[in-house]
Amino acid sequence: MNKIPFRQQPAFRSLLLGVALLGIYVYYIFWGGGFWSNAVGIALDLLLLMILYPICRFFYSQFILPTRTWDERQQIAARLRLHAGHGHGPAIFVRNGRKVERTGESDKSGPGVLWIDTASAVVTRTPLTFKRVLGPGVHFIAANEKIGSVISLHPQNQSLGPIQGDNPFTKLKDNPTDEEGHRFTEMRTRCMAVRATTRDGHEIFPTLNVSFKIDARPAKPGQKGSRFGFNAEAVERAARSEGVNPASSSEDKRRVAWNQLPGLMAAELWREYLGKFTLNELFEATQKPLPTIHQPEIPPSTMAAMPPPLIIRSDYRSRLLRNFNNDWEKRLNVLMPPEPPAPEEEIHQAQLAGGPKPEATGQTALQIINQMIKARLSQAVVVKLDECGRPTEGQQVSDEYRKLTERGIVVLGAGAGSLLLDPEAERQLLYSWTSSWLTNAREDQKRIERLGVAYAEKGRHAAQLDHALELSEAFNKAGPASVPAAVAALLLAAEDEIRTSDRLQSMARSELELLRDLEKWLEEK
Fold first, then answer.
1. Which domains does the chain have, with CATH numbers?
2. How far from 223 is each of 124, 218, 220, CA to CA, in Å?
3. Cβ atoms 178, 135 nearer than 8 A
4. Which of 101, 227, 327, 418 has its CB 3.0 to 4.6 Å from that of 105, i.e. a possible disulfide?
5. Do residues 201 and 424 touch, judged by C-beta distance below 8 A?
6. How far apart are CA 449 and CA 245, in angstroms?
7. Distance of CA 175 to CAs 168, 172, 178, 214, 261, Å?
């Protein structure tokens, strides 16, 4: 039933204008001599009306929607004709995954039109089955075709758990009002959706956040397509995965949309992994980092080409240069003594990454849980943990990832935060942290000292490489023809290096004088 009053409908305005024009035309005919005297003119007017009406309708209809092809112009002209007679179907604009329509527009029967923006997609249906997947653009639907599902192509974020002001450990006061009881029920429903228990029996209520989108690659700049990505197969899978919750009393909540599944899966994974750890382990950095698991879809990396072997010459000139460099390195070590040797693991990490890194410290159980939740939702194979949260040698196939992939969903991130604890347990945690802060501070100090050693060792190594590079460049540039000329070139390069460095110039004054004496001795020889 159309809820729009008849006087506000386009058909009423068209009828009123037609009656007014017909009255003017009849008055003109009778004023000009009557019907029979103007019969030929009336016939010509009717013929001209039948010719110009479809032409004008076709011409003006192409300005209603951004149509491009001849078929689209014919389609919109046909719907404009039906609109004049109130026989058209729904005309709906889909923006950001939501329908923008007038009241009762979706209930209309007849051929309709859909205008979908670049951040949305639509799956249409008939009374029996799904029919088409429509991406961004203008689309014309048949009389028996309705919108079955509207899919947003935006990256979406779903949040579950208590909101600001919720306290799941409070009880409903005596004799509450209906509004207070309703608010308390809603608060308990939000909190119980993410309720979980640690291995030692403490209840925790977190706020779970999951970000995801339809599995589609965005169009590159300059290419046709949606900048959010549109994949017809993934959109159809998401629409077909929607279900119905028969236990829901509300009609709005009875439909289980496609974008509710990632959050529900994250809540189940949170319960699973929280039960493997104790309350203290959640905040103590005592867990080993998770190992890296290579995914099946990632191709094996190719072997890097072996570097050419280092050739060490053994002629007289080469031995002289090596002896000179070794002697100069000893003098540098005297002027700038190296720090005590750093732990082998720290130096190895610093050399691999091009810079020093902190040693592989432990992680908290909360970090492990967040990593596992994200891995189970976004990876095909994940690390397998035992009942105490320790990584085992085996691997685990993620059923959650498989189910999301089958539904055309890709998870971008997931994790838990803003934990709500029992007040008594929270006080015990604060007391334990206060009593152990000095021990933790000393451990941090030792770690920082070890990191400083790694930085100093890498800096010394880099200084030696730079010194050797400058000497070799000066030697190649001079191109000495004899051993004395080669030694003179190296002495000049070393002297220039000291002069251009403020630090070396203030610390190596005696060595600079020694270099000058060596240069004079070579000139005399």
1. 6-152 (no CATH), 156-289+362-435 (3.30.479.30), 317-358+440-524 (no CATH)
2. 27, 10, 6
3. no
4. 101
5. no
6. 59
7. 19, 9, 9, 47, 37
Q: Span 160-188, mean pLDDT?
A: 86
Residue 130 is encoded by which pair of tokens? 């799904």
Q: What is the DSSP string of 370-394?
A: HHHHHHHHH-SEEEEE-TTS-EEEE
Report the pLDDT value the prediction gives residue 414, as an integer from 0 to 100.
92
Q: What is the DSSP letter of 479?
A: -
pLDDT for the residue 433: 65
Q: What average pLDDT score do residues 171-191 get? A: 86
- Whole-angstrom distance, CA of residue 204 vs CA of residue 426: 11
Residue-wise pLDDT for 376-413, tens only, equals 999 999 999 888 888 888 888 999 999 999 889 999 99
More confident residue, 308 or 386: 386
**Rounded distance between C-alpha atoms, residue 392 and residue 420, angstroms:** 30
CB-count burial class (<10 Å; 0-12, 13-18, 19+) for 85: exposed
Q: How many residues appear in the chain?
A: 525
Strands 112-116 and 91-95: parallel
Tokens 């959640």 label which residue?
A: 282
Max intra-chain CA distance, the chain: 136
Cβ proximity of 212 and 264 under 8 Å: no
> Which tokens is 146 given?
């309705």
- Spatial separation of the C-alpha atoms in residues 508 and 141, rounded to whole Å: 86
Beta-carbon count within 10 A of 226 CB: 21
Strand order in the sheet with 120-125: 130-134, 120-125, 146-152
Q: How far apart are CA 428 and CA 283, in angstroms?
A: 13
Question: What is the pTM assigned to this prediction?
Answer: 0.62
Q: Which among 110, 54, 49, 40 has a CA at the least distance from the CA of 79?
A: 110
Positive or negative, the CA dihedral 377, 382, 384, 389 is negative
Please identify which residue in the block is written with the tokens 């000291």.
Answer: 498
Go through 513-525 and write b for each residue having 16 or more CB atoms within 10 A of its CB, e for each that does not: eebeebeeeeeee
| Residue 445, C-beta contacts closer than 8 angstroms, at least 6 positions apart | none
Q: Provide the pairing of β-strand 156-160 with 381-385.
A: unpaired
**pLDDT over threshold 60, residue 354:** no
Is residue 165 scored above 50 in pLDDT? yes
Contact of 86 with 4, CB cutoff 8 Å: no
- Identify the CA nearest to 206 among candidates 196, 198, 216: 196
